[in-house]
Amino acid sequence: MERLLPADPSEIGGHRLAGRLGAGGMGVVYLARSPHGAWCALKVIRAEYADDPGFRARFRREAELASRLTSRWTVPVVAADADARSPWLATAYVPGPSLAEAVALRGPWPEAQLRALGAVLAEALDGVHAAGLVHRDVKPANVLLAADGPRLIDFGIARAVGATALTTDGAVIGSPGYLSPEQARAHTVGPPSDVFSLGCVLACTATGRPPFGTGGAAAVLYRTVGQEPDLDGIPESLDRTVRRCLAKDPERRPSARELRDVLGEFAVAEWLPEGLPALVAARAARVLDLPVPDPTMLAGPSPVDASPSPTRRRLLVAGAALGVTAAAGAGAWWEWGRSAASANTGSVRRSRHVVTLLGSPDDPSFTEHRRGALLAVEQHNQDTRRTLDLVLRNADDGGTATGSAAAAARLAADPDVSVVIAAGSNATVPAALAPCTKARLTVLITRADTGALDVVNTTSALVLRVTQIVGPFAAVIYLNRVVKPARTVVVHDLATEVESLATVRIITVYGKLDGGTSVEEVAADEDFTGAARRIAARPLDAVFFGGVSPDRAAACARALRDAGHRGARVAGEHVLGAPFLAAGEDWRIATGYTDANADTRTKAFAAAFRARHGHAPGPWAAEAYDAVRFAAHGLASVGDDGRTALRSELLRRPWQGITRLMSFDASTQFFEAGDDGGGFLFRVTGGAARFVARSADIGKKT
Q: DSSP code of 664?
């Protein structure tokens, strides 16, 4: 538990806050005393996620679902307010460690205690399923250990069996390593999915390791779907039972009730392995000894309770009982639409358009996309002159082409989605084009620049940047206007030949450089020592690295430095990574994104971003901001036919954003570079890439 921050409220809904149990992107979980003096875990959702009525519907449903549960091995909702500015939910607090922590500290459990654990969790799931629910996130972190038995907690992503999802339809929700094959495939799940997860929990508790291994989520999901579990070390008497739970076919798994009968009755005496009772007691004593918390420094009403919605606040009271975790909500991630609180008020009637960001939440650039887009949506919805309202949603592509195609298919099938902003990478974005094109759903591509996008004139997509078709535009301008070398050596890295070929061709075949050129090819199994020596024989020649690997670019930079090369060195944005930033001092890098903090034309955006998010905007935030505003500009002109007519409208005339002029060639429908180029130049110095100029300004300020 952590101390309260000065900005934290002292009280929420009559509950005095004592400390922070955890925090994440969606909100904060506090340890609090109820008005009756009982300890509880109080989960507060950030106000920024709560303006969409769909979110509040989901949050209200979560409280109602949890209040249905009556098993002694699950936790009730003590109180909740779905209508507060920042919705909150309180559950009774269990002052014990999680099963995940216990296994990490004390190792695998003996057979007798393993059976007791399994019996209780099976009984808890039987109650969950009898209430018409599926938990969907059974894992060691969601099992708390109390002196009188374990508790299954966190129903944040539970769903009523057969209910229509309020989350993105088909999304993979749960924790890799413990979710079932049908969850991994984003299929409909039922009670057998929870049984599979319970089998994973028992296997991990018995062996000390997850049955499908560790590593990246994609690899774990792949093993879950297609490989057999690692059950080496499971007690022989439990091996068959656990294997039945982990059957790939849901119909071959036992029910929770059948599993409870197989594992036997729970006996509270000595149910915890040696060493754990003392840990549980110590945790309980630590909480019981807490003093009444001092007020925090926050002045005025708490940010949670301030400015409540007009809807009458509703308090759910389910009685006090032992309950939920310090890690409430840790296994679930939610993405919500956002609409203006003032939408469609008074006599003004506005159409509503959903803008969806497609990408991976694990990708840092996606986070910056989301923040920039959110600012654009909020500013748009605050404009009293607007003719439409925007809602921002996020769609997870899993970081793979397959995931991107599947997510795009779901978006294409959703008639509420007006436009998709593809924030993914070269590896994922092309896969999203086909399903969106079939549905005539406009896709605006901000980041990807692969040659696979050369077919945009036959799709419903528009690429909002210069791509590999014209090469690293700002680097070419820098060499022509500033350096003016007699010769530029293009280093063609064959380790990334396919990705590099377009850049090399632009410079050599199409002759975009004013001076002479030559090419040094470096094989994938070669270092750059030989090439660097040959280049350094003419030390003032410029070097254009035609590769995309940060590691290979770093090796090239070191080799050139060691060989004594003194000329200008340039490359494209894909080399920017920790290895290259450490080795590439004084290189110039052409990018498709600006530094909104240093670019004079984006200062107002940067100030608004800092005020909204509390930090400076990162790469792609300004580009996502422009993409949303560009879409809104088009949607305002096409009316109710926005989904199918938007792309044509956006192609019709140029539009000036804060990052670049959005203009497209009438015949090819590609982004028009023009004199400005829509690109940016950075310089690597001190281990970081620092903004130099926009393409149009290179030579004026460099």
A: B
Angle value at C-alpha 54, between 52 and 55, nearest 5 degrees: 70
Which 3 state secondary structure label does DSSP give 471?
coil
Q: Which amino acid is at 282?
A: A
Q: What CATH fold (topology level) applies to the domain 473-591+681-697?
A: Rossmann fold (3.40.50)
* DSSP label of 435: H
Residue among 194, 59, 188 at smallest CA distance from 136: 194
Work out the angle between the directed axes of helices 256-263 and 191-207 (0-180°, nearest 10): 30
Going by C-alpha positions, the residue among 389, 404, 412, 392 that lies closest to residue 460 is 412
Q: What is the DSSP letter of 52?
A: S
For strand 388-396 and strand 351-359, is the pairing parallel, antiparallel, or unpaired? parallel
Angle separating helix axes 603-613 and 364-381, nearest 10 degrees: 100
Tell me the pLDDT tens digit for each residue of 37-87. Answer: 888 889 888 765 666 566 677 778 767 777 777 788 988 788 888 888 888
Which residues touch 495 (CB under 8 Å, ≥6 apart)?
A: 522, 523, 524, 547, 549, 552
Scan for tokens 């005339």, then name that residue: 653
Provide the token pair at 57: 């519907």
Distant-in-sequence, close-in-space partners of 598: CB < 8 Å, separation ≥ 6: 690, 691
Number of H helices, E strands in the chain: 20, 24
pLDDT at 697 (0 to 100): 92
The annotation places the binding site for ATP at: 43
> Given this model, what pLDDT does residue 50 score?
63
pLDDT at 293: 55
Which runs of E-coded beta strand occur in 351-441?
Answer: 351-359, 388-396, 417-422
Q: CB within 8 A of 609, min separation 6: which ones? A: 371, 372, 375, 596, 616, 617, 621
CB distance 41 to 60 below 8 Å: no
Q: Which regions of the chain carry the CATH code 1.10.510.10? A: 11-288
What pLDDT, on a 0 to 100 scale, did the predictor assign at position 443?
96
- For 461, phi then psi, to 5°, come to -100, 155
| Sites in the chain below the pLDDT cut of 50 | 157-172, 297-347, 702
- The Cα 301–Cα 556 span in angstroms is 58
Predicted pLDDT at 331: 30
Residue 74 carries which DSSP code?
Answer: B
How far apart CA 73 and CA 63 sit, in angstroms, is: 17
For residue 179, which of 68, 332, 282, 8 has the smallest C-alpha distance? 332
Distance (Å, whole) CA 587 – CA 447 = 22
DSSP 608-627: HHHHHHSS---TTHHHHHHH
Alpha-carbon distance of 77 to 84, in angstroms, equals 17
Residues 6+ apart with CB under 8 A from 511: 517
Topology classification of domain 351-466+604-671: Rossmann fold (3.40.50)
Tell me how far apart the alpha carbons of residues 536 and 96 are, in angstroms, rounded to a whole number: 65
For helices 621-638 and 603-613, what crossing angle results, to 10°? 100
- Structural contact between residues 340 and 389, judged by C-beta atoms closer than 8 angstroms: yes
Binding positions: 43
* Residue (of 607, 591, 612, 589) closest to 660 by Cα position: 591
List, in sequence order, the alpha helices (H) in 344-385.
364-381
Which amino acid makes up residue 626?
D
CATH dotted code for 11-288: 1.10.510.10
Q: Confirm if 87 and 270 have CB atoms less than 8 A apart.
A: no
Residue with tokens 């690597």: 684
